[in-house]
Specification:
heterodimer; A: 155 residues; alpha+beta; 16% helix; B: 558 residues; mainly alpha
Amino acid sequence: MRVHLYERAFLWLGAAMLIVFGITLIITSTAMGIHLPGNVQRLDPAQVREIPPFDEPGVRQIGENRYEVVLIGFAWAFQPREIRIPAGSEVTFIATSTDVIHGLHVQGSRVNMMLIPGQVARNTYRFDKPGTYQMVCHEFCGSGHHIMAGEVIVQ
Amino acid sequence: MKGASVVHDPTGYQIPPSQRRVLAWTIYVGYAALAAGVAHGLAQALSYAGINILQYFPFLKSYYQGLTAHGVANALIMTFAFSNGFLPLLTARALSRPMKSGLVWGSFVLLLAGNVLTAYAVVTNQASVLYTSYAPLQAHWTYYTGLVLVVLSTYVAAVSMWIALKGWRREHPGARIPLLAFICVVSYTMWCLASVGIAVSFIGFLIPWSVGWLEFVDPLLNRTLFWFTGHAIVYAWLLPAYISWYALLPRQVEGKLVSDPLTRVVFIMFLLLSIPTGFHHQYTDPGISTGMKAMHAVLTFGVFYPSLATAFTVVAGLEIGGRNRGGTGLLGWIPKLPWGDPSVVAQVLAMFTFVFGGITGLINASYSINQVIHNTAWIPGHFHMTVGSAVALTFMGVAYWLIPYLTDRELWGRKLAVLQGWMYTVGVLVMARGLISAGLSGVPRRTFFAEAVYRDSIEGARLSGVLTGIGGTLMTVSAVLFFVVIGMTVLVGRKGGGPRDIPAAETLTGPATGGWELKLDRIGWWVVAAVVLILIAYGPFLLTYLPPNLVSPGYRFF
């Protein structure tokens, strides 16, 4: 195929750029340990409050500087609403929804996951900087969507 | 392989007036949907600025009803109605043969019926689920059924193009498919394949569920089926704009399309790669393994590639035009472009905004980085620079020659129309700047931010909200100008003053008459290859995921 020299150069440059970006992503998700939520478990959203660990939603310490937050989203609140942890804690969020799809985003962090009825979402993040972080539902979940929020308080 | 021939047809074929009228009305439905949706856009932009103007929309029950109307009308109806008219019109012109009248009518009637059903559900607040229609929020059955009819209307339009192409090939054995027809047909063929996900979701699950035949649905499966279609749908909206940039705009600036073969390769790449990328919308979803997500990330980087090639080709087409018009030096061709032609202005500026749309899209697709911006206001910032300008502004620019062509009336208010393109561009860039920074500071998307409980607790949200409001207002005023210009053209434009022909560009490097490039025209084989890629991308997930996790009854939280 006849492709003009400039265009050929442009396309190679573009390919090189994409490859560099791709390598960066591989580094972030392996060496830097930035993971996405993956496949955890299925459950029945109607039974959530009887199924461990969701029978006891809340924050608990599971090791030195390590915490686990078991969180339930429903229209239109999070339980727990307030999460208090010391600075430098590594926090694992385990979350689900009892009704429609909700979202969980802790502002200024990469705690960002979908709460899908029937599925358990799980991800880990270390909160280093003290402060109050807004925890908002970021998936449309009905007419009260904008009042569904909470706070992560890092002390 | 024996050599192929190339058919040159400079005659400027005119589609029969009866079909032209129906196609014109199909396109009008699109612009009407644009008008209906844009009105709500203003309320949404101002909401980010903390201004609530919902009381001026007395027929709205909630912000989210307006948001649903905005998304459905502008993203789903406007785009497909325009394409249903535009692509068959171009295909007929490129092949110098009419469409089947029954199919042209059938497509129009289905589109209209679908609109009526969906509009009924949205207007009566029985479908405030937003255009993504995520179960288990449950809309009235008329909403899903109406959208299925709209999709069927696109199938009928596609069939009319396939039949026309088949007839042409029978009469021109061994000839290369005319480029304009090729890219139109490939675009809608890709869409037909892409729509399988939404068709299975709506027909197989959501419609039976909304009428009560099915008690429970699987939220994750329906979401996955939506995004099977949902990324490629964006390309289905975008490709008609690309078609204009590649094959028409060069003619409007007295330039040429640089390369016929590369253009075909680009569109075939879209056919192959648009669909097996859907998981990049679900990076933060539970229930999908990270391995599958990573595979879709790679494929999404792949589908960025043809857009990269497009960036070169379409700008080169403009450069040729600028130089033909007396431009010299490295950038001297830019001021020589016909900046007084509103159709050119709108489309060139749409391309410019798409540079930022493309870059932000690449960031969205970037696996781990996605967690920073997923479902924040960044996302509407991104897609208003893609669908909201690259597509919408191009469709407005095309209207400035297409409506005069279809009605044979001279464009009314050229200067106003030029101003419109500039104003829209400034508006969308300011708004996107606002939304993007809002997203980075943690403002969620799809949220009635003016009333959100955390509105004052998010640092930086105030300035970005004000920018969003100003930009959105400029866009709305610009859209009003557009409808004034088009309305006046249709009503009082000078009769007999429309262009005689579609601005079809010539190519610098024509199609090959031998070698492997002839295989590009074997569209059926490329469809098979696309299906194989889809099976690789979705097969392992479906095999390990199925049977569906039918657990959710319907909720009507609106």
